[in-house]
Amino acid sequence: MVSKRIGRDAGGKRKFLAIIDDTPECMRAAAYAAQRAKASGGGAVLLYVIEPGDFQHWLGVEKIMRAEANQEAGARLGKVADELREAVGIESEAVVREGTVIEQIHALIEADREIAILVLAAGEANEGPGPLVSAVAGKGAAFPIPVTIVPATLTDEDIQSLC
Questions:
Q1: How far apart, in whole angstroms, are the C-alpha atoms of residue 156 and residue 159?
Q2: To the nearest 10°, the Cα dihedral for 147, 109, 5, 89?
Q3: Lower CB density within 10 Å: C or N end of the chain?
């Protein structure tokens, strides 16, 4: 069970959580989260999860690979945050975690009681909406907060009109 959310009436602000990865559609989720945050006086949180399977090497190599992965994650989050700042005019929080994506989403939601909405974007591929949306829709991935799934085909203008 997740901790009770801290709402506006208790001095909190509603935060929208977007997952940043290497998929092109993640930018649609980030844009939507930032626009909704701006429109509601809330905040946007960007989460990048480094998968644990990437570091199964000798100790020295593992350290180097972990450092490189953290550096890449920070760079990716910085680029997305810069784009959101320029396009939407909002400062977003950037979080890097290691582990499985679903577990780290749950852990961040538990740790930050102002996160109220998880925003994901569905991919355009014929194979389905993408691994993250598929995992969230599957059994065992239920979240204690609402999940908004944004179509990857929405333009910035579409997102702005919806928010």
A1: 5
A2: -70
A3: N
Instruction: Please name which of 106, 79, 103 lies closest in space to residue 20, comparing C-alpha atoms.
Output: 79
Distance CA 97, CA 107 (A): 10
Report the alpha-carbon distance of residue 52 to residue 54 in Å, rounded.
5
The two tokens of residue 102 are 């679903």
Contacts of 118 (CB under 8 A, 6+ apart): 17, 19, 105, 109, 136, 143, 145, 146, 147, 148
Q: What is the mean pLDDT of residues 43-56?
A: 83
Percent above pLDDT 70 for the chain = 81
Name the one residue in this structure whose structure tokens are 């090497």: 57
Prediction pTM value: 0.87
Contact between 27 and 120 under an 8 Å Cβ cutoff? The reply is no
Alpha helices in 55-149 (DSSP H): 59-88, 101-111, 131-137
Query: What span, in angstroms and rounded, lies between the C-alpha atoms of 34 and 16?
Result: 7
Give me the phi and psi of 145, to 5 degrees please. Answer: -130, 160
